[in-house]
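Researcher: I'd like a structural prediction for the single chain below. Treat it as a standalone chain; there are no partners to consider.
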Amino acid sequence: MKKYFKVYKTLLQLNLSTLTAYRANFINSLISSLAWGSFSVLSVFLLTSKTSSVYGWSKNELLILIGAYNIFIGIFHLLFSRNFDRFSTLIHYGQLDGLLVKPMDSQFLLSFWFFNYTSFFRILLGILFTVYMLFQTHQALSFLAILGFVIFGIIGILLLYSVWFIIVTFTIWFTRLSNLVELLYNLNGMTRYPQEMFRGTKIIFFFLLPITLALTTPTKLLFSKSSTSDFFLLFIFSVILFYISRKFWKFALKFYTSASS
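Model: Treating it as a single chain, here is the predicted structure.
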């Protein structure tokens, strides 16, 4: 474990060096990140322009959900999204070979090679906006509610990571499916809406159930709308999907054709 922390620290330093070397990319990424964060807030105002609540969620509760969305999706982009962006390229051009021969877990190297520093600003925006909305609604928060929000938010990120990794693993067989990542970005976007919105279409809801649990469950803790079953499902889905992602990756590697073969 110590070796992995040491390697990750080195990767962080390398990513920071790249960031300072290409400052224009940093500015572009920063503007894009803040723009998407602002757009998600605007979407709630559009959604509630003709009604005071949506599927039992008031306008202020939806705005708090958007704040949580920016926090946790910001963390997800901070850690993982750039790594998934290059997944199909690594496999298609045989560059995965260089990771597989290293004396470390290949899933770890694939998942943590890049670190997107610009997402820090989106996370900060999400935190400030969430705190502001909680003060605006005069919501009383206990230490346990905040702790639960953080813990289940991390579990939700683990769930999203597992779903992403399972789906992009299919590029082992279908190397040209680089647009899978675009599909996954759209799935992530669904987490900014209440879970109840998808229950009308049972087939779609069953498919999206893990995704819809990821952020609505921890957010409900902030205004006492939480349900034990939601927490249980979120935890179970996260553990099972992470286990599947590990096993499926190991299975898929048996079918990987390296550049030298």
